[in-house]
Every structure is written in structure tokens, then in C-alpha cells.
Amino acid sequence: MANSTGKAPPDERRKGLAFLDELRQFHHSRGSPFKKIPAVGGKELDLHGLYTRVTTLGGFAKVSEKNQWGEIVEEFNFPRSCSNAAFALKQYYLRYLEKYEKVHHFGEDDDEVPPGNPKPQLPIGAIPSSYNYQQHSVSDYLRQSYGLSMDFNSPNDYNKLVLSLLSGLPNEVDFAINVCTLLSNESKHVMQLEKDPKIITLLLANAGVFDDTLGSFSTVFGEEWKEKTDRDFVKVSYVD
User: Which UniProt keywords apply (predicted)?
Assistant: First the structure.
């Protein structure tokens, strides 16, 4: 929420903008998009500040149960002439933020349930027919709020080659080495090692050549794989 000068600090503004982007995407995915930010008393409503305050107090249901909307209004410095501000806040929260709160604050499934047709409850021990992948998604708003990294690595085919070389499975390793061999030959496709430099280290490790840096693959290739597969990868590499 804004400070006494009416302007939010830069950090708060960034979080607020990220929150609005996330909120718009949420409503767009549910078929309830919005463009304009609602206003109360001629003042644009700080949806991020409202959401933060309400969830701090336990969420929409608890705030409504304890009738705390009047207390929240005082923190927004609305004009005194706006006598219905508490009612407006509650209605706007219900329209824009209540469903978002259920999914992103309480971790509930984002399933629309028609009135009078409650969602069937699964019996204890039953396996749902679909998996809620949303529970693993961390929004940009939450990442910024908790100081998490915003730098993401885009997966590519070279990452798959690295995983194949790391697997220790003969078919996977042979496949990865064959692909690397083909890409190393003169053709319209070239091997782009900069996309995952670990490929060189792993190719050398498969040939029994290890570096001395921390986290060397010598332990994996020389000890762990030998113990679990009864195959001496280092010896095979040197013999070949």
C-alpha cells in the first residue's frame, strides 16, 4: 500500500505490477479477463495491497466472518465522503481476488464448480484422475516477494544428451555418443558446446579421463556405477 506521500516505494511498485500481471493471466485463463483496475472513491484500488492485507488476516472468509472490512478501509486512506468503501472492498475482493486467493494462497484446485453442484469428494486412499501441476508452479509475484531468482534456464536438446551420458545406461550412453559424433562431422548441423559445456566433461569421463575439481565424475563412474551394475566403466573405457 502507498505510504503517507501517496507513492509506493520502487520495490513495492515492482511487486504490485508483477502481481497485477499474474492476476490478469489467472483471470484470462479462467475466462474472466479484466482490463481496468477498479476504483473506490475516485482512487484506483491497490489490488496487491488489498490481497496482501486480507491474506495476512487469514483470507476472505475469515475477514468476512470477523467483519474486518471496516478496519482494512482505514489503511487505504479513502476520502471520508466514500461511506460505502468497506462494502466496495469486499465486493471487489470477491470479484478479482477471492478465486486467486484459493488457488495461490490456500493451494486449492482451480476447478470451477457450478452452484448447487458441489465437487465430488474422493474416498480416502483414492487416486485422482488428473494431477494438479499448478501446485508446483511458483508465480513471478511470489518469486519477487520471497527474493527467489528470476533467471531461468531454457531446456534444450543438449541437456538431454547430458542426462543420457549421466545415466550410466549403455543404450543411453551409446545414443548420446553417436549423436555427438554425428554433430562433430562436417554437415549443416554443428555441435554447439556452449549450450551445455558439461558435455565435454562427460564425454571425457566416459573415456576414463577425469578432472580433479570438486564434484569430479570419477566417483560416479569409478565407484557408484561399478557397485550398482557390476560393470567397470573405467576399465572398459581404457581397454576400448
Answer: Nucleus, Transcription, Transcription regulation
